[in-house]
Write a structure and sequence with these properties.
Oligomer: single chain
Order of helices and strands: HHHHEEEEHH
Strand content: 5-15%
Number of helices: 6
Largest sheet: 4 strands, antiparallel
Number of strands: 4
Distance between the termini: 71 Å
Helix content: 25-40%
Structural class: alpha+beta
Length: 166
């Protein structure tokens, strides 16, 4: 019996995920937990084709097993390595101070910008920015206060990589 795989795939793609899960169980003989429609379509189509045309030969299976023997086969992505919380041996953990941003002028300097006809002056502090008597952690927070919407503080104040106007 010959099947038209393109026609079968087109039919599968019109099915809902629930219908595909039922078809998967019917085709594979076991249920699946996935709800990924593309994965289900591919696996069902492959199994249908393998059932009709035949699976790989026993010789191919033995050769694959022989090649895989003694190798470390990963079936899932590696989990992120969490940094150690304590000092162990030669490794010492601690806080890393970020490099100073060279786009900002030094502390106690002022950043000026005219916005909607109004002159805006922001004082650069050691750990933040002062605008209209309030302290803000980032330039973006100052820009949001001024404009009422989120925007990049460096772009709003037209600071380039050298710490001046563009």
């Amino acid at each position: 019996m010959q099947i038209d795989i393109d026609k079968e795939v087109a039919l599968l793609q019109r099915m809902t995920v629930g219908q595909l899960r039922e078809k998967f169980e019917e085709t594979w003989g076991e249920p699946t937990n996935t709800r990924n429609k593309q994965w289900l379509v591919k696996r069902i189509a492959w199994k249908m084709q393998a059932n009709i045309e035949g699976d790989i030969s026993q010789r191919a299976r033995r050769r694959a097993a022989e090649l895989a023997r003694g190798t470390d086969i990963r079936t899932t992505a590696p989990k992120a390595i969490k940094p150690a919380l304590k000092s162990t041996g030669d490794t010492v953990t601690g806080f890393v101070q970020p490099e100073e941003d060279n786009r900002l002028p030094p502390p106690r300097s002022e950043i000026e910008r005219v916005y909607k006809g109004e002159k805006i002056v922001v004082l650069v502090l050691e750990n933040g920015f002062e605008y209209e008597g309030a302290i803000y952690k980032t330039l973006s927070a100052v820009a949001k206060k001024i404009t009422g919407q989120h925007c990049n503080g460096y772009h709003f104040f037209k600071l380039n990589k050298k710490g001046g106007d563009k």
